[in-house]
Amino acid sequence: MTDTTADRTARRPRVSRSERSKAVNLVLLLLATIVVLFPFLWMVSLAFTPAQDAFREVKLWPDRPTFENFMTALTVGNLGRAFVNSVIVALAAVASNCVIAVAAGYAFAHLPFRGSTVVFYILLSTAAIPVAVTLIPLFLMVSNVPFAGGNDALGRGGSGLTDTLGGLAIPYLVGTLSIFLVRQFYLGMSRELAEAARIDGASEFRIFWTVYLPISRPIIAVVAIFSFTAVWDDLLWPLVVSSSPRSQTVQLALTGFTQSGNIQYAPLMAAAIIVTLPVLLVFLFNQRHFISGLSEGAVKG
């Protein structure tokens, strides 16, 4: 007795609607991933392609890979000095934000005072001010720092902190977004921990230092990553305050490969890879804490 078409169809496992939807979503995500990754793959391919062969044909991997472009990026351009400058400014921004923003966020969340809510929302509203509006006041403040760069006690006569690493770092030392995220993170924590510590006679600083700070690693990782990327990716403020190669950052150094009407695409792509690596490493090493901190800080608040 042979099976009929209807019998074979009846025995065939049915695919549910949710499984079909899941398969479609996977295909769409795969296509989106290819579209997003293609520019990065091409960038890597160009970085390892000899400069004279950069645009002869488009390939995902060159026939004769070379490290010459990386050597050109580090020696011909100002990338090496700019890399060190960016690292110094970024570490200063990360350290100051992790100390000041965490302390301020904790104070707004657990040490309320009269008018603290108004002060917090005024502080938060400054995040809505366009960056371009703050450039001139920031530049005047940096150039008029007393006793710096030849200035007198009134901040006149010299260049202040312009064209220095100190002047580069000032706008990044404390971020409003960092304070907001830390406050939301601490609002989601139980106040019973602090009450129990106060009953035992602990001071407010000891409560912060020994009770809350040890369990704040996720939000500290978020603040550190945001602070690092804010410095590393910024071009506008270094363009305003820096006037010589000694204070250039990596973003300014990258523009050096596109000037004089002779764009060096292969060394430029090699330089872009070198500049991108620190951001990727910072994110990969803090990925678990970063995601946890964002979810706890944003959702619980």
From TrEMBL:
<dbReference type="InterPro" id="IPR000515">
    <property type="entry name" value="MetI-like"/>
</dbReference>
<feature type="transmembrane region" description="Helical">
    <location>
        <begin position="82"/>
        <end position="106"/>
    </location>
</feature>
<protein>
    <submittedName>
        <fullName>Multiple sugar transport system permease protein</fullName>
    </submittedName>
</protein>
<dbReference type="Pfam" id="PF00528">
    <property type="entry name" value="BPD_transp_1"/>
</dbReference>
<feature type="transmembrane region" description="Helical">
    <location>
        <begin position="165"/>
        <end position="186"/>
    </location>
</feature>
<feature type="transmembrane region" description="Helical">
    <location>
        <begin position="207"/>
        <end position="232"/>
    </location>
</feature>
<keyword id="KW-0812">Transmembrane</keyword>
<dbReference type="InterPro" id="IPR035906">
    <property type="entry name" value="MetI-like_sf"/>
</dbReference>
<feature type="transmembrane region" description="Helical">
    <location>
        <begin position="265"/>
        <end position="285"/>
    </location>
</feature>
<comment type="similarity">
    <text>Belongs to the binding-protein-dependent transport system permease family.</text>
</comment>
<keyword id="KW-0472">Membrane</keyword>
<keyword id="KW-0762">Sugar transport</keyword>
<keyword id="KW-0813">Transport</keyword>
<keyword id="KW-1003">Cell membrane</keyword>
<feature type="transmembrane region" description="Helical">
    <location>
        <begin position="118"/>
        <end position="145"/>
    </location>
</feature>
<feature type="domain" description="ABC transmembrane type-1">
    <location>
        <begin position="83"/>
        <end position="286"/>
    </location>
</feature>
<keyword id="KW-1133">Transmembrane helix</keyword>
<feature type="transmembrane region" description="Helical">
    <location>
        <begin position="23"/>
        <end position="48"/>
    </location>
</feature>
